[in-house]
Amino acid sequence: MAETPLVLKAAQIEAAPFDFRHPLDDNAAIRLFALSHLTGMTNTSVSLAHLAPGHCSYPKHRHHAADEWIYLLSGSATLEMDDASHSLGPGDFAAFPAGGPAHKLTNTGEATLIYLMGGNRAAVEVADFPEQASRLTIVNTGPMPQAEVSPLDAHAPFDYFARDKDDG
Fold first, then answer.
1. Three-state DSSP class for 32?
2. What is the secondary structure of 49-98 as a DSSP string?
């Protein structure tokens, strides 16, 4: 059995692309090089990302459990965070704390946008996609993540202790 490498050379990284098109947005198409996955890391996620001009990485979304970040290496982009818009370029960093603003990164330049992205890998992550009125739930406890998408309006507040309150 091959040993999981702890050091990746550039040629190894370039030989392992993962092209991802988000099922909730046809314009969300990204080429990822899953550095943390390739090295066997399970508590954090780090990827090198290539994003073609005019595309977004993911639909606008908000995380409930995981922190996320991006660091631009080359190219130019527009970052939407809730109702604000930010122009980004090489050397710019953006953080998306759990429970923070909904965000979306779009390549607004003429060349491929190249950046690092990552965050912690929560055992259970919930992400809302406000423009698609959808919620994604991911369970990261097994060898492969298990994911479900549901309509946002299918979820309602639930008072876990309601019975205790009624019992007096």
1. strand
2. EEE-TT-BSS-SBEESS--EEEEEEES-EEEEETTEEEEE-TT-EEEE-T
Q: Into how many domains does the chain fold?
A: 1
Contacts of 84 (CB under 8 A, 6+ apart): 101
Q: List the CATH number of the domain containing 68.
A: 2.60.120.10
For residue 99, tell me if it sits in a domain: yes
Alpha-carbon separation of residue 168 from 68, 120, 145, 158, 159 (angstroms): 43, 41, 42, 19, 15
Q: Is the pTM of this model over 0.85?
A: yes
pLDDT tens-digit series, residues 40-94: 998 999 999 999 999 999 999 999 999 999 999 999 999 999 999 999 999 999 9
DSSP code of 4? P
